[in-house]
UniProtKB/TrEMBL annotation:
<dbReference type="InterPro" id="IPR013751">
    <property type="entry name" value="ACP_syn_III_N"/>
</dbReference>
<dbReference type="GO" id="GO:0044550">
    <property type="term" value="P:secondary metabolite biosynthetic process"/>
</dbReference>
<keyword id="KW-0808">Transferase</keyword>
<dbReference type="Pfam" id="PF08545">
    <property type="entry name" value="ACP_syn_III"/>
</dbReference>
<keyword id="KW-0012">Acyltransferase</keyword>
<dbReference type="GO" id="GO:0006633">
    <property type="term" value="P:fatty acid biosynthetic process"/>
</dbReference>
<protein>
    <submittedName>
        <fullName>3-oxoacyl-[acyl-carrier-protein] synthase-3</fullName>
    </submittedName>
</protein>
<feature type="domain" description="Beta-ketoacyl-[acyl-carrier-protein] synthase III N-terminal">
    <location>
        <begin position="133"/>
        <end position="210"/>
    </location>
</feature>
<dbReference type="Pfam" id="PF08541">
    <property type="entry name" value="ACP_syn_III_C"/>
</dbReference>
<feature type="domain" description="Beta-ketoacyl-[acyl-carrier-protein] synthase III C-terminal">
    <location>
        <begin position="258"/>
        <end position="357"/>
    </location>
</feature>
<dbReference type="InterPro" id="IPR013747">
    <property type="entry name" value="ACP_syn_III_C"/>
</dbReference>
<dbReference type="GO" id="GO:0004315">
    <property type="term" value="F:3-oxoacyl-[acyl-carrier-protein] synthase activity"/>
</dbReference>
<dbReference type="InterPro" id="IPR016039">
    <property type="entry name" value="Thiolase-like"/>
</dbReference>
């Protein structure tokens, strides 16, 4: 069989902030409805119900002097060291995020210069032919970055790319909105390199979709629920609609990506899905299994970090992958030859899925 170029992950890295924020830290918040009226229940009950639905017990926030580009550069540096790749040999740096370098003392979007340019600068890369650009694509941004890098590598036009997902969601959430307890900060990264192989390896297939007719504003920026904050914009979510959208479309999209690779669900070792909501992710996996005729499936197939790390948007999947590959998640491992699925859903509404075989 003729050798072809395949995109292979050769290194991973992540940045998990040290500041741990537990659910009890929200007892002091004043939670309001979208009309500015208090919820009508005490915070302890609100927090308990939140934990039951999302599975989140704690999350991580970046230190006040740490920006998204700082975390991204650190995760990228780890990935490059893991890959044993000279940074000057990178052809692309793709940084997925949604809000830029939001500062703790001035929570406004800051995207000039691009975060990718900032990361390249922080890594000290001098090569002008290392192209750095940003990818705002909602929570699926990091996976979409892998999809784009895959095309560059398979074309033969590039040999190596660094794909980073980094976000400080804690700085753009409304403290008076109970959904603020979902969000967290962090970064994850992977180095992809082109590899000649006569048998498929690395990224085997992908699938993606964008739905906007009714779904475009399920996630959007809007005013605080507290009237005193109306001059600022915060991230708002139509949680129930997003939940139903994900359950309706993500399982079928993952199945499509598996079919493209001629891979059966019984051949999948792990499903690494965006850590948005533990209950939602479990329901997505269950619906995916039913598409293949399975009524029950082992929980080990889907590693989860959301209970302690929360939802860090584009950083959740690469962080999860890095922790598993480094042996930092109990009873979780990925071996040579294993087929894994990387999948995400988020603002846009966007969904994507990659089928990947470990080299």
């Amino acid at each position: 069989m003729e050798d072809k170029i395949h995109a292979v992950i050769t290194g991973t890295g992540s940045y998990i902030p040290r500041r741990k924020v537990s659910n009890s830290d929200f007892l002091k918040n004043t939670f309001l409805n979208n009309d500015g009226i208090p919820l009508g229940k005490d915070n302890e009950e609100t927090i308990q119900k939140f934990a039951e639905i999302t599975g989140i017990q704690a999350r991580r926030y970046a230190a006040d002097d740490v920006l998204a580009s700082d975390m991204g550069a650190e995760a990228g540096e780890q990935a490059l060291a893991s890959a044993e790749l000279d940074p000057e040999k990178l052809d692309y740096i793709i940084v997925a995020h949604n809000f830029g370098d939001v500062r703790a003392d001035n929570p406004r979007v800051d995207m000039v210069p691009t975060l990718a340019s900032r990361v390249k600068h922080k890594l000290g890369i001098k090569n002008p032919h290392c192209i750095a650009y940003d990818l705002p694509f909602g929570c699926p941004g990091w996976i979409q970055g892998l999809i784009q890098c895959n095309y560059y590598l398979r074309s033969g036009d590039a040999l190596a790319g660094l794909v980073i997902g980094t976000e400080t969601l804690s700085r753009i959430c409304d403290p008076h909105d109970r959904d603020s307890m979902i969000y967290s900060d962090g970064a994850g990264a992977a180095v992809l390199e082109g590899r000649q192989s006569s048998t498929p390896v690395g990224i085997l297939s992908h699938s993606a979709r964008t739905d906007t007719e009714e779904q475009a504003y399920y996630l959007k920026m809007d005013s605080s629920y507290h009237p005193d904050h109306n001059d600022a914009l915060f991230m708002k979510m139509k949680g129930r609609k997003l939940y139903q959208y994900a359950l309706t479309h993500v399982p079928n999209l993952v199945k499509t990506s598996l079919e493209k690779a001629n891979i059966g669900f019984d051949e999948v070792a792990k499903v690494l899905i965006h850590q948005a909501n533990a209950k939602m992710d479990a329901a997505i996996l269950q619906r995916l299994a039913k598409l293949y005729g399975y009524d029950e499936i082992s929980e080990d197939i889907m590693p989860m970090t959301i209970s302690q790390l929360g939802n860090s948007s584009v950083a959740t999947v690469p962080t999860l992958l890095d922790l598993v590959l480094r042996g930092k998640m109990e009873n979780q491992h990925i071996d040579t030859g294993d087929v894994i699925v990387l999948a995400s859903v988020g603002a846009g509404m966007n969904i994507n899925s990659i089928v990947y075989q470990m080299d």
